[in-house]
UniProtKB/TrEMBL annotation, chains A, B:
Residues 2-56 form the HTH lacI-type domain. It comes from Pseudoalteromonas distincta. PROSITE patterns: HTH_LACI_2 (PS50932). This is LacI family DNA-binding transcriptional regulator. It holds the Pfam family Peripla_BP_1.
Length: 331, 331
DNA sequence: CTGTTAGCGCCTTCAC
DNA sequence: GTGAAGGCGCTAACAG
C-alpha cells in the first residue's frame, strides 16, 4: 500500500504538504498542490482511514442500528433518510442490522464503542416502545420510529394521532360521512393513536360519533399468534353498519376489503370509499387510484434523527406527513 | 478514552500483556489474564479499532454494496445472509447502500479503498447485468443477484430456469395439465430463464406444448414506462385458452388473478390453480394456502457470496432453492 | 506557505 | 510468559 511519504517523495515535497492536500487545506501553493495531486494519481494513493482516525479526535462516524424485528418494505427509508443527511454533511454512516436477540444488540454496541462512533440512531421497524442497554447512554443517541420505555432517550416518532386525523379528514372532504375503521391490534401504539385521530376528525367536523365504527380486526389468539379477521369483519360491518367508507390499518387489509366489496358487487370509490395507513406497495396499480393512503414518514424520520445528532437541531420544519418529536436532553 | 496503557498500569502488567489478553493470545498466565480482565472492566476499556487496524495487516473488513435501484422487500435478505456469515467468521461487514448514480458508486468505492476492505459483494435488487468500474478489480469482488456484463467478476445468481422447472413441476404434480404463464417483461433475465424452465418441465413430463401458453403481461409503453396488463390478459386468457392453472411472474400479479377469478366466480385451487414467483409477502394470509410460491434464494445468495469471499469456497452444498454459481477466477 | 517534531493507540519483533 | 523498543500511516502543534 502506498503511503503519504511515498507520495511526498514523488512530488518532491514534505509529507505534511501531502497531508494538507489530501485534507483540502487551502494553505498550499497551487503549484505544489498540482505536483501532489499528480503524484497521488500516478501512485494511485489512497489515504488510510484507520491511520487518520487514530490521530484525529473526531471520527465523523455515525451509526444507525436497524432493528429488523418486523421487516416491512418501506422501513428501509429510515436508513435512506439518515444516509442522505450523513452524506450531505460528510459523515460516515455505519449501518448495523440487528435482530431481537441480546447477543445481536450487544455486538452492535461493541462495534459502536470500538469504532468510536459519535452518534447513534436506533430505529425500529414498527412504532413501539423499546428498552435499550444503558451502555448506549455513553453515546449521543436518538430513537427513530420507537420511543424509550423509561423516557431516557430523545426520539422521533410518527404522530399517529395526526395521521388518523388527516386520513379521516381526507375522506370527509371527499364527501364520505359514515366511516368504519378497521384498526390494527389496539395494543400497539399506532392503533391507539390513529383511533384517537379518527375520532378527533369526526368531532372537529361536527359529525356524530354514531356515524363512526372502530373495530380492531387483528386479534391475538390464545397461542399468542396474531390473526387478521379483516375480511370476515368487513363483510359483516358492511352489511350491518353500512359505512360509505372504510379505513384500513394497513395495505394488505385494504386488499381484503377490495375482495369483500367485489363479492358484494360494490363499486370501489363509488359505493364505498377505501383509505389505508401504511402503504406497503402491495396494492396493485390498477386499484391505487381508488385508495386514499397515508404513508408513514420514514424518510423524514431518518433525516430528522441524523440532523438532530449532527447539528443538535430540534427546531426542524414540520413536514407534510405527521410527526411527533419528543426531545429529552439526555446529553 | 481509556487506553491500553492505563489498563496496564491498573493491572500492574506491561501494556503488551494487556494487548495479548485483548487479542486472546493464549500465552498469558491466567493470574495475569484475570488481573487484566478486571482492570478492563473497572476502567471500562474498549479497544480502539482504528488504532489496531493501522498496525495489523489484515483489516477483516468486508463490504456489501447494495444497489437499491429496485427496492423490493425481500432483497434485504441478501444483506442478511452476508451478515450472518460475516458474523460467524468474525468479520466486520460494511453495508454500503448506493443508488444508480455514478457519484454514489464512486463514493462507495472510495470508502472501500480507504477502509482497506478485503472483499466486496456487489448486490443488485433485481437479477440483471451490471457494468462495474475497473477499480473494483483491485479488491476481491463477487456479484450477487447480478452478473458482470463482460464476465469479469465471479457472481452468484438465482437459477431462473430451474425455478421455472420447479414451480411448473409442482403444479403438474398437483394434477394441473393446462397452464398459462403470465411472464414479466421478457427482456429481463428472470423472465427469459423462467420461460425456458416452464417449457422444460412440460417437455420432461411429456405434456404437449399446446397445453402451455406463455405471455408477457408487463409491456413497455412508448414513453418507456412499464405497465402491467396482467388483469386484462388473464381475463382474456381464462376465457379463450381455458387453463386449469396460472403461473404469475410475481405476487402483485397473482393478486390480480385472484380478482379476475373472483369476477368469473371461479374457486381458487379448485377451478383454477395459482402459482407465483417472487413472494413479496403481498398476498393476504387468507389466500396463501391456495398459492404455490417460489421465493428467490436471496438469503442463500448473501451467505454464499460471503463464504466465497472469506474462504474462497466454491464447493458449497446445493440448497433447496435453485441457484446458479458462475465462477470466474478474477483474483 | 512549508517542514519538523512529536505523538495517536496499538501491534510486531525480539530479547530476556 | 513477558516486556522494551520500534514502527504503522497519519495529524497536531509549532517553528520557520
Amino acid at each position: 500500500m502506498v503511503t503519504i511519504k511515498q507520495v511526498a517523495a514523488r512530488a518532491g515535497v514534505s509529507f505534511k504538504t501531502v497531508s494538507r492536500v489530501v485534507n483540502n487545506d487551502p494553505s498550499v501553493k497551487s503549484v505544489n498542490r498540482e505536483k501532489v495531486l499528480n503524484a497521488i494519481k500516478e501512485l494511485n494513493y489512497r489515504p488510510n482511514r484507520a491511520a487518520s482516525l487514530t490521530r484525529r479526535k473526531k471520527t465523523n462516524i455515525y451509526a444507525i442500528i436497524a432493528d429488523e424485528l418486523l421487516n416491512v418494505p418501506y422501513t428501509f427509508d429510515i436508513i435512506r433518510g439518515a444516509q442522505e443527511v450523513a452524506w450531505k454533511k460528510n459523515k460516515e454512516l455505519l449501518i448495523l442490522n440487528i435482530n431481537e436477540t441480546k447477543a445481536s444488540i450487544d455486538r452492535a454496541i461493541v462495534s459502536l464503542l470500538e469504532n468510536r462512533v459519535e452518534g447513534v440512531i436506533y430505529s425500529a421497524m414498527c412504532h413501539r416502545a423499546v428498552q435499550l442497554p444503558d451502555e448506549l447512554k455513553k453515546i449521543p443517541t436518538i430513537l427513530a420510529n420507537c420511543f424509550p420505555i423509561n423516557g431516557d432517550f430523545p426520539c422521533v416518532v410518527p404522530d399517529e394521532v395526526q395521521a388518523g386525523e388527516e386520513i379521516t379528514t381526507a375522506l370527509i372532504n371527499k364527501g364520505y360521512r359514515r366511516i368504519a375503521f378497521l384498526n390494527l391490534n389496539e395494543d400497539i401504539i399506532a392503533a391507539k393513536g390513529r383511533k384517537q385521530g379518527v375520532i378527533n376528525a369526526f368531532t372537529r367536523h361536527g359529525l356524530p360519533l354514531s356515524n363512526l365504527l372502530i373495530e380492531s380486526v387483528i386479534i391475538k389468539q390464545d397461542d399468542g399468534i396474531e390473526r387478521s379477521i379483516s375480511r370476515e369483519s368487513a363483510a359483516k360491518i358492511i352489511d350491518s353498519f353500512k359505512p360509505d367508507a372504510i379505513i384500513c390499518g394497513q395495505d394488505p387489509m385494504a386488499m381484503e376489503i377490495y375482495f369483500v366489496a367485489h363479492e358484494k358487487n360494490m363499486v370501489i370509490g363509488d359505493d364505498i370509499g377505501i383509505a389505508s395507513f401504511d402503504n406497503w406497495g402491495s396494492i396493485p396499480e390498477l386499484l391505487q387510484p381508488n385508495l386514499t393512503t397515508m404513508a408513514l414518514p420514514h424518510l423524514q424520520m431518518g433525516r430528522w434523527a441524523m440532523e438532530y445528532l449532527i447539528d443538535l437541531r430540534v427546531d426542524l420544519v414540520h413536514q407534510h406527513l405527521p410527526f411527533k418529536l419528543i426531545k429529552r436532553d439526555s446529553f
